[in-house]
Design brief:
Elements lengths: L1 H20 L7 H16 L5 E2 H6 L8 H13 L3 E3 L7 E4 L2
Antiparallel strand pairs: 1-3, 2-3
Amino acid sequence: MPAALGHIAHLRELLHELENEAGLLDLSEVERLILYAMNRIAAASEDGTVRTDEMRAHVLLTSVTQPTFYRALRTLRDKRYVDIAPNARTKTYVLTR
């Protein structure tokens, strides 16, 4: 376990550096997780859109409560990281940054 813990610690340090370089440290942990999940889902989508049910089912977000998820998603919209997809209903989003 100590070796694995050391590897995890190293990965977390690298992730922190990358998040800092990308300017993501001003976001909460849940906000960053939403962006990561959206990125992965959008990459597999034909039109780059992501539905909220797809986000909520993503492995990174399954432990996030519904109120926390929607609060963070609203903050991401306010900060213009995401927006409602054009020609879509309110439950479909796109990354804007």
